[in-house]
Design brief:
Length: 142
């Protein structure tokens, strides 16, 4: 349903790692929403789902790196909530003008800003801002 301030989403637990995934309910502290003016990045995946995200949305790669969607290069693999690899079958650009919602989760750790979307791990607004300021990707591997 609708994601809004004060609602809860599952975020990775602080002591989780790629080898031992676990998730806890986390408070949504703020939500940024609006109409996206740039093309969306669409990932068709081996789990049968399609994830559509903005250009700078943080995606967790199978090796534990967190990178913006636009820098995902094929072949690519994401991770599901159990730590299994999910193959990216295609990475395409789709139309503009779609409404996007980006929540921020309450957490003091990088892990706590990782959530599940369309069955794979991605990041929240905080993680998006963190990787935007980095030259290199952030790693969530412990």
């Amino acid at each position: 349903g609708d994601i809004r301030e004060g609602s809860e989403l599952l975020g990775m637990s602080d002591d989780a790692g790629l080898e031992s995934m676990s998730f806890v309910p986390r408070l949504v502290t703020r939500v940024v929403s609006g109409i996206e003016t740039l093309p969306m990045h669409a990932f068709a995946m081996s789990n049968g789902r399609i994830l559509r995200v903005t250009r700078n949305h943080p995606m967790v790669l199978a090796d534990g790196r967190v990178v913006p969607a636009h820098s995902v290069t094929m072949p690519a693999w994401f991770l599901d909530k159990d730590g299994n690899e999910v193959a990216v079958l295609s990475h395409t650009l789709s139309g503009v003008g779609q409404e996007v919602v980006n929540p921020a989760l309450q957490s003091d750790t990088t892990h706590g800003h990782v959530l599940v979307a369309e069955g794979v791990l991605s990041g929240d607004l905080i993680l998006q801002n963190a990787i935007a300021g980095e030259e290199a990707a952030i790693a969530i591997r412990r």
